[in-house]
Amino acid sequence: MSTIASTAPVVVLDDAGVFRRYGDLASLIESGQQPESTRCVLNREGQYFHLESDGDGKVTLGRPLGSVEFHSLRQQFTRDQHHHPELHRLLRVYPSTMAAFLESLFEELVLEEPDDEQPWLVITEDQTLRAFGLGAVDRRVADATGPTVAVDPFGHRYRPHTVRRGPLARRLHGRPLYVEIPR
Fold first, then answer.
1. What are the φ/ψ torsions at residue 85 (nearest 5 degrees)?
2. Cβ neighbours of residue 145 under 8 Å, at least 6 residues apart?
3. Strands 10-14, 19-22: parallel, antiparallel or unpaired by DSSP?
4. Cα separation, 57 vs 143, whole angstroms
5. pLDDT score recorded for residue 4
6. Which site in 2, 3, 16, 141 is 20 to 30 Å from 183, CA atoms measured?
7. With b meaning 16 or more CB within 10 Å and e meaning fewer, what string describes 149-170?
8. What band does 2 get if pLDDT is binned at 50, 70 and 90?
9. How are beta strands 10-14 and 48-49 bridged, if at all?
10. Cα separations (Å) of 63 from 13, 38, 70, 98?
11. 51: which strand partners?
12. Coil, helix or strand at residue 82
């Protein structure tokens, strides 16, 4: 039996090294993720689990296998950001403790979801604007004429950086990367 509450968010690391957040265990099970294509499932406390199939082919969550190794997890997420910059446009300064990193990971993944509509602030030289979700932040940043700072719902501040040429620019389709401003 797992120790992931059925209503708690989870993060899946798949065999391709891609991180995906699910709002709860039922969403994960219904998503079609298969045990053979999933490395592990993480909860907010850093416990990891494997997906398993029962005899009828129904996907379930296995028992907890212990705590995930902090440095490996951080390296894997950094690798995922590098390989999929179009999915991970928030470039945070990562904390040096496991608990703080997990909190940051869950926050970042929810903010990067296409349907997220949490309130952000976009600060320009002469005004502070509200935007709901990263897509709306992108539009506000595109309309800005001077230096801009974006502030996420968790209080992290970012400097937008739009890549204009090269392969990265093509992958981002004109959308900026958001580089965290250290506190």
1. -60, -25
2. 124
3. antiparallel
4. 51
5. 63
6. 141
7. bbbbeeebbbebeebeeeeeee
8. very low
9. unpaired
10. 17, 15, 20, 21
11. 61
12. helix
